[in-house]
Design goal:
It is built from 17 helices and nine strands. The protein is α+β, with helices and mostly antiparallel strands and 519 residues long. The strands form two sheets. Strands 3, 4, 5, 6, 7, 8 and 9 form a seven-stranded antiparallel beta sheet that branches. The chain has a two-stranded antiparallel sheet with strand order 1-2. The model has no long low-confidence stretch (mean pLDDT 90).
C-alpha cells in the first residue's frame, strides 16, 4: 500500500520521539543556514566605505540582522560603522556565525538520537503507562520557555543590563550606533519608529507568556473545549503553530517594507515610500534653507550636507527598483558609488529656477521634464527634435552644481546640461564605478525588498496551510473519506479482496467453529 507524497508526515503522527527529532532537525537546518550564510557574507563583504558602499548595497542579508542586535565588529579589526582596529571579543560576526554552526551540529546529533531512540518515558501517560502526548501541557511548556526568552531579551539584552542594547539612529539614518534602550510604557511606545516600544513590548509579552505558560502547565482544559478544539490531535498543534508563523511573517513583512525602528535605514537601506514622499529631499532642502538663513552661500549650504544623506536621496537605493528577477546585490546593477557630484540646479534664459521631474519608483525610463516652482513645464528633452518647443537649446537651460565634487561649477553646453538633467532625474547625482563589480547598469532590489517579498509570500502560503490543517483536524472524518461505521470492511490486510467477506484471511493454524460464516 503506497502513500501519496503529501502523507509523508504520517510517519511522525503517532511517534513522539520522531516528532521531536524532526523539530530538532528543522532548528538545526535554520541555525546551520544562518551561520554558514554569515560566513559567506563575511567572505565577500567590503567594509572599507560604510557610507557609499554599505552592507545593504552589497546584498548582505544576515549581517544587518546581526548588527541591529549588537554585532557590529569583526575579528579582522573592522566595524560596519567604519572604525578600524576594533576588538569585539567573542561576539563578533565570526564568533556568532561559529556559535550557530556548532549549535546546528549539536542539534543534528540530537535529532538523530531521538529518531533512533524514540521510546522515552516522557512520552508515557503516568496513569495508564500508554504512549501519550499531553498536548495542553506541552503547549504550556513551550509558552513558558518562549515567555522567558522574550522577557529576557527585552529586560536584559535591549536595556544593556547584560547585553549591547540595539541599533538606534536618527530619523534620517545618519548617526546610527548601538545603544542601551529604556522601555517606553506610554502611548509613545506604540510608535513603530520608537525603539523604546520594542523593549517595552518584549518585556510585557514575556510576562504574559510566562503567566500563560504556567497556567497551561498546571490547569487542565474542560472536556467540552478539549473535544471541540481537537486538543488531542497533533494536527491541531500544527494548525495553530502555522497561525503564529503566518501572523509573524505578515507583521515583519509590513514593518520591513514601510519601515520601523526594528529595520533601520542604515542596515537595510531606504524604504520605497521615502523616495515617493521626497523624505530625504525635504530634509536636504530644510538644512540648506536653515544654512542660507544663517548667512551661508548656496555653495556652503550644500557642502555642509552629509554625503550619507545625499546618497539616500537616490532612486537606485529604493527597494522597489530592479524587480525580483534580477538577482544579485545592488552594486551589480548601477555599480560602486565613488562620490557625490553635487546638487544640480537648473535655470532657463528667463532666470526661472527649474527642477527635473523625478523618476517614479516603478519606471526604468522616464521623459526628462523640467518645471518651475509652480509646476509648469518649461523645458524638456524632446523625443522628436523637429517638433521641439521646449528643448534645452530653445529655452537656454543652464546647470549649476552645489556641494559635492563639482561645487560651484556652472554648465552651459546643452550636451553637458542634458547629461546632468538625466542624473538629476534619479535624485542626487553620484559617479559610479562599474568595473569593480562588473555592473550591468540595471537597477537591483535591496535586501529590504527581497525580505518583504519572501516573507509576504510565505505568510500567504502558511495562511492557506493553516486553513487547510484546521479544516482537516476539525473535520477529520470528512477528510479521511471513510465512514467510521465501515469497520472491518476496510481494515488493511484483513481480506484478500478488500470488502469481500468470503476472502477473509485467517491466522495460521486457526480453525473456525463449525457453522460460522468463515468455515
Amino acid at each position: 500500500m503506497g502513500l501519496p507524497w503529501y502523507r509523508v508526515h504520517t510517519v511522525v503522527i503517532n511517534d513522539p520521539g520522531r516528532l521531536l527529532a524532526v523539530h530538532l532537525m528543522h532548528t538545526a537546518l535554520v541555525a546551520g543556514w544562518a551561520g554558514s550564510m554569515a560566513l559567506y557574507e563575511l567572505a565577500i563583504f567590503d567594509p572599507s566605505d560604510p557610507v557609499l558602499n554599505p552592507m545593504w548595497r552589497q546584498g548582505m542579508f544576515v549581517m544587518p540582522f546581526m548588527a541591529r542586535l549588537g554585532v557590529t565588529g569583526s575579528w579582522g579589526g573592522w566595524s560596519i560603522t567604519g572604525e578600524t582596529g576594533v576588538d569585539p571579543g567573542f561576539w563578533s560576526f565570526e564568533g556568532v556565525a561559529a556559535a550557530h554552526i556548532i549549535f546546528s551540529g549539536l542539534l543534528f546529533l540530537a535529532a538523530i538520537w531521538h529518531w533512533t531512540f524514540w521510546d522515552l518515558e516522557i512520552w508515557q501517560d503516568p496513569r495508564t503507562g500508554e504512549p501519550a502526548l499531553d498536548l495542553p501541557k506541552i503547549f504550556g511548556i513551550h509558552l513558558l520557555l518562549a515567555g522567558l526568552a522574550c522577557f529576557g531579551f527585552g529586560a536584559f539584552h535591549l536595556t544593556g543590563v547584560f547585553g549591547p542594547g540595539m541599533w538606534v539612529s536618527d530619523p534620517y539614518g545618519i548617526t546610527g550606533h548601538l545603544e542601551p534602550v529604556q522601555p517606553s510604557w506610554g502611548p509613545e511606545g506604540f510608535n513603530p519608529f520608537n525603539p523604546g516600544g520594542i523593549v517595552a513590548h518584549h518585556i510585557a509579552a514575556g510576562i504574559v507568556g510566562i503567566i500563560a505558560g504556567i497556567f497551561h502547565i498546571t490547569t487542565r482544559p474542560p472536556e467540552r473545549l478539549y473535544k471541540a478544539l481537537r486538543m488531542g490531535n497533533i494536527e491541531t498543534v500544527l494548525a495553530s503553530a502555522i497561525a503564529a508563523v503566518f501572523f509573524a511573517a505578515f507583521i515583519v513583512a509590513g514593518t520591513m517594507w514601510y519601515g520601523a525602528a526594528a529595520t533601520p535605514v542604515e542596515l537595510f537601506g531606504p524604504t520605497r515610500y521615502q523616495w515617493d514622499q521626497s523624505y530625504f529631499k525635504t530634509e536636504i532642502n530644510r538644512r540648506v534653507q536653515t544654512a542660507l538663513d544663517n548667512g551661508a552661500t548656496k555653495e556652503q549650504a550644500y557642502a555642509s550636507i552629509p554625503e550619507k544623506l545625499a546618497f539616500y536621496d537616490y532612486v537606485g537605493n529604493s527597494p522597489a527598483k530592479g524587480g525580483l528577477f534580477r538577482v544579485g546585490p545592488m552594486v551589480n546593477g548601477d555599480g560602486l558609488p565613488t562620490g557625490w557630484i553635487g546638487h544640480i540646479s537648473f535655470t532657463d534664459k528667463d532666470g526661472r529656477d527649474l527642477e527635473v521631474r523625478r523618476l517614479p519608483n516603478f519606471f526604468e525610463n522616464f521623459p526628462v521634464v523640467l518645471q518651475d516652482q509652480e509646476g509648469i513645464v518649461r523645458a524638456d528633452i524632446p523625443f522628436r527634435r523637429a517638433e521641439a518647443k521646449y528643448s534645452f537649446e530653445q529655452t537656454g537651460v543652464t546647470a549649476t552644481v552645489y556641494g559635492g565634487a563639482l561645487n560651484g561649477q556652472t554648465f552651459t553646453d546643452p550636451a553637458d546640461v542634458k547629461r546632468l538633467a538625466r542624473k538629476a532625474q534619479l535624485g542626487e547625482a553620484f559617479e559610479f564605478d562599474r568595473e569593480t563589480y562588473h555592473s550591468d547598469g540595471t537597477f537591483r532590489s535591496s535586501p529590504r525588498g527581497w525580505f518583504t517579498f519572501g516573507h509576504a509570500t510565505f505568510a500567504l502560503l502558511f495562511f492557506f496551510g493553516h486553513i487547510w490543517h484546521v479544516a482537516r483536524t476539525l473535520y477529520r472524518d470528512v477528510f479521511a473519506g471513510i465512514d467510521p461505521d465501515l469497520g472491518e470492511q476496510v481494515e488493511f490486510g484483513l481480506f484478500q479482496k478488500l470488502g469481500d467477506r468470503s476472502t477473509r484471511r485467517l491466522p495460521e493454524g486457526y480453525v473456525p467453529p463449525v457453522g460460522s460464516p468463515l468455515s
